[in-house]
Amino acid sequence: MDTDRGRDARGPMTNLGRLTRYRLIIPLKRGQMPPEHVARGVAVGLAVAFTPTVGIQLIAVFGIWALARAIATRFQFHLVAALAWVWVTNIFTIGPIYYTFLLTGQLMLGRFDELGSIGFGTFTAQLTDVVNADSSFLEGLWIGTLTLFKVWGLPLFIGSIPWAVGTAWIGYVWSRRFIIRFREARQKRWARKLQRRDQHDAGGPPA
């Protein structure tokens, strides 16, 4: 019985880990573009993810991608990687992340007397109402963004800026290093396989 309960408890975390790996890590491993190109995609995805633009994040990524292709070719990025890393802010993480934006914005604006005036529970309840607003798709995207600004004002948006910039920079540095190391390790594995095959064909001892 205890074993079954342990398996049930680990199930959601295991599934989340697999989903995270599938959505975030696999696109980095499969890409054939230069590491910098893919890493810029991760940076753009994180920058958009860490802004209070729920509902229009994918559209924003597409817009930035199209703009980069049209007028800033040196800043082009991997679209699939960008779209994948927007998922960092999802239904499971949006509440804590946006609440952190609000607190950060209140600190940046010097509104110390308002710090924590809205409890986390109240905030998440209001956020759920905004996300689940009953309207058409396009209207819902527009209303959702306007409502976020109307309900929580400038602190929410100002507070997202350092997080967007910081996570984008960290994402670029980390993903570029990860891709380079992964490809180097893959090349070494291929080289060892070719060496063993050549030695086998030549009748020599295995490496």
UniProtKB/TrEMBL annotation:
Keywords: Membrane, Transmembrane, Transmembrane helix. Coiled coil: none annotated. Residues 28-186 form the DUF2062 domain. Pfam families: DUF2062. The keyword Transmembrane applies. The keyword Membrane applies. The chain crosses the membrane at residues 42-67, 79-99, 152-174. It comes from the Bacteria. PANTHER family: SLL0298 PROTEIN. This is DUF2062 domain-containing protein. It comes from Minwuia thermotolerans.
